[in-house]
Design brief:
This protein is of the alpha+beta class. Among the domains are: 34 residues; 90 residues, SH3 type barrels. The strands form two sheets. Strands 1-2-3 form a three-stranded antiparallel sheet. The longest helix has 58 residues.
C-alpha cells in the first residue's frame, strides 16, 4: 500500500500536489473552529476574593514585670582601702600640679621684673655717661699740680716719686683758653653726603652741620668727620674728638 501511495504521488503533477496541501489546511482550520465553539462555556465564572483571617491578640491577664534592679556591690575592706588610697593619690597629684603651675607663673613674673630692672639700669647708666660727658673737665692749675708733689715739710713726696716712674707719667691734658667753652661731641652722622654732629655743653645739646655758628661763643663749624668736629673762632681752630659711650 505504501508503494501504491508513492506511485500515486509520483504520478501527480505539481499543481495537483499544491491543491491537495491547500485542501488539507482548509480542512484543519474548519475542524479547529468547530472545536473552539464546542469548548467555550455559556457564562464566565467570577472569581471569589478570599479575606484573610485576622488573628486577634490575646490579652494577658498578668501585670507587666519590672526589670530587676542591680544590687549594690559591697566592697571588701581591702578594696575600700585601695580605693581610698587612689583618691588620696589623685588629690595629691592635682595639688602638686597646681603648685607647679603657680611656681612657673611666679618664675616668669620674676624673670620679667629682672629684665625690666636690667633695662632700667642700662638706661640710667647711659644717661649718667652722657651727663658725665657733658660736664666740663676740671681745670688743673700748675700750682695745684706742684702742690701734690711737695710734702708739707717742703720736700718731694717720696711715695709719688717712687711709685710713679717718670717715663710712665702721662702729660697733663691741655687746658682750655679763657674764651673757649668745653664742648663735647656726642655723635656724628652722615645723611645724603652731608655730615652732621650733636654737641653737648653744660647739659644742652646742639645739632650742627658744616657752616653753622654756635650761639654760646660764636664758634663756626669748619669740618665734621668720623673722628670729631673742628671749630673755628677768629684765627684759632680747635678739634673736638668724638668720645665713644661704652
Amino acid at each position: 500500500m505504501t508503494a501504491n501511495r508513492k506511485q500515486l504521488l509520483s504520478s501527480m503533477s505539481t499543481r495537483q500536489k499544491v491543491t491537495v496541501v491547500v485542501f488539507i489546511l482548509v480542512l484543519l482550520f474548519l475542524l479547529w473552529q468547530i472545536y473552539a465553539l464546542l469548548a467555550t462555556p455559556s457564562s464566565p465564572s467570577t472569581p471569589v476574593n478570599k479575606v484573610p483571617a485576622v488573628v486577634m491578640p490575646t490579652l494577658q491577664n498578668s501585670a507587666p514585670q519590672s526589670a530587676p534592679l542591680p544590687r549594690p556591690s559591697v566592697l571588701t575592706p581591702q578594696e575600700a582601702a585601695i580605693q581610698q588610697m587612689q583618691q588620696e593619690t589623685e588629690s595629691k597629684y592635682l595639688t602638686a600640679l597646681n603648685e607647679l603651675q603657680m611656681l612657673r607663673i611666679v618664675r616668669d613674673i620674676a624673670e620679667t621684673n629682672k629684665a625690666i630692672m636690667s633695662a632700667k639700669l642700662d638706661t640710667l647708666t647711659a644717661e649718667k655717661s652722657i651727663v658725665d660727658l657733658l660736664k666740663p673737665p676740671p681745670v688743673v692749675t700748675p700750682g695745684a699740680y706742684a702742690q701734690t708733689l711737695i710734702t708739707p715739710t717742703g720736700g718731694v713726696n717720696s711715695t709719688t716719686a717712687t711709685t710713679t716712674p717718670p717715663l710712665n707719667i702721662a702729660p697733663p691734658p691741655p687746658t682750655l683758653q679763657a674764651n673757649e667753652l668745653p664742648y663735647t661731641v656726642i655723635s656724628v652722622s652722615q645723611l645724603q653726603y652731608r655730615w652732621g654732629a650733636v654737641l653737648g655743653l653744660q647739659g644742652n645739646l646742639y645739632s650742627v652741620q658744616v657752616g653753622d655758628v654756635l650761639p654760646m661763643d660764636q664758634s663756626r663749624v669748619v669740618s665734621i668727620d668720623k673722628g670729631g668736629v673742628i671749630l673755628e673762632k677768629g684765627a684759632l681752630r680747635r678739634r673736638i674728638s668724638l668720645v665713644p659711650i661704652i
